[in-house]
């Protein structure tokens, strides 16, 4: 894995939720990531400091849970900038965050597509 993902966070999520639920959570994160970044863009466009701040904190939290450390860090930076208005610092951070989200989607998708260890389930054949 690259520096964009933290494998320890993904393993912790699996340990907390179980492998299937962790994979489902990460899959939902991936599915929602473009809309969450778009929400930040709308907040900047509309000058909605409150929504931008809340959306950034939420994105930071969920990103940290799946190990998307760069997106989490940039979302926190965006939230801090948004508290002072949605000016140039927030816009610049949003550009970096958007790029990091694209790379994160690619890398996390590849990570989730890697088959895990064989299941320990016992299968009984009929008969």
Main beta sheet, described? Answer: none
Terminal Cα span: 45 Å
Query: From N to C, what is the helix and strand string?
Result: HHHHH
The coarse overall form would be elongated
Query: What does the average pLDDT come to?
Result: 88
Measured as a percent range, the helix fraction is over 70%
Task: Count every helix, treating DSSP H or I runs of 4 or more residues as helices.
Answer: 5
Low-confidence stretches: 116-127
- Find the count of extended strands (DSSP E, 2+ residues): 0
Computed Rg: 17 Å
Q: Give the percentage of residues in beta strands.
A: under 5%
- Structural class, from secondary structure content? mainly alpha
Outline:
This protein has 127 residues and is mainly alpha-helical. Helices cover 76% and strands 0% of the residues. The chain has five helices and no strands.
Keyword list:
127 residues; disordered C terminus; mainly alpha; 76% helix
Provide an overview of this structure.
The chain is mostly helical and 127 residues long. The protein is built from 5 helices and no strands. The chain has helices at 7-17, 19-46, 49-66, 69-82, 88-113. The longest helix has 28 residues, at 19-46. The radius of gyration is 17 Å and the shape is elongated. The model is unreliable at 116-127 (pLDDT under 50).
């Amino acid at each position: 894995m690259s520096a964009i993902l933290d494998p320890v966070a993904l393993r912790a999520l699996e340990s907390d939720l179980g492998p299937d639920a962790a994979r489902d959570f990460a899959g939902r994160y991936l599915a929602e990531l473009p809309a969450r970044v778009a929400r930040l863009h709308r907040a900047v466009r509309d000058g909605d400091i409150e929504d931008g701040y809340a959306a950034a904190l939420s994105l930071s939290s969920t990103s940290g849970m799946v190990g998307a450390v760069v997106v989490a860090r940039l979302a926190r930076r965006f939230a801090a900038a948004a508290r002072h208005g949605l000016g140039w610092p927030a816009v610049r951070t949003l550009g970096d965050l958007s790029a990091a989200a694209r790379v994160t989607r690619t890398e996390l998708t590849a990570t989730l597509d890697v088959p895990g260890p064989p299941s320990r389930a016992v299968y009984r054949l009929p008969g």
